[in-house]
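hiii, so i know i said id send this last week but things got crazy w the move. better late than never?? heres the sequnce for the chain we talked about at the cafe, plus the structure i predicted for it. fair warning i was half asleep when i ran it
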Amino acid sequence: MTQPFLKAYSELLIRTCHRRGAHAMGGMAAQIPIAGDEAANEQALARVRADKLREVTAGHDGTWVAHPALIPVAREIFDAHMPTPNQHHVLREDVQASRDALIRPSEGTITRAGFENNVEVCVRYMAAWLDGNGCVPIHWLMEDAATAEIARAQLWQWLHHSDPRGRHADGSPVHLADGTVIDFGLFERTLAALPGRLGDTATLPGASRIPEAIALLDELTRACQLVEFLTLPAYARID
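okay and structure toks below
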């Protein structure tokens, strides 16, 4: 939520809701407890605390988490900084979220790990979804249709907002932080390598449907027009 456009829309949400006397709810902390690794678990809890502190000090009236064990963590932060039942009095009249602020591109680079993680999240989530599971823990984060959709839409945008030579319409190169051109060759290699990266998939949710999920992600990503939502074509594949 530190990207400028995300900050702009979340603060505009508070201003809009409070002007109408409605609660402005915060977002989900996707972290889940990490068993057997105290240091990693504390890092995850620290991220949750920081996220909830940002929300309550911005003016949100409540929040939600991905795992019941994180409720006390979120409640502690909100109780400490929101002694009243809500924050409707926080009108955020200082917020001026212009059109340009709301559509400002993300800052930063596209890492190889980020690209590969998007592919993995899409495939593993869709495999589980096809098998009847709509909420899947992946790398100690709770992934749902919304987070998988973000990953899927990013892949489509990175690949389709460039011509076959791997360049944006303005001529600037589209590449990973390590200089690798982002094109369908990279996408194909990443998809092909995924089963090997996953190793023994027998215990993964929807393991038997991973090949089907790979094919579906390939189809969605190659579509000339962005499909409205990743689950729409997947409904036809439900048993």
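btw The radius of gyration is 20 Å. thought thatd interest u
miss u guys!!
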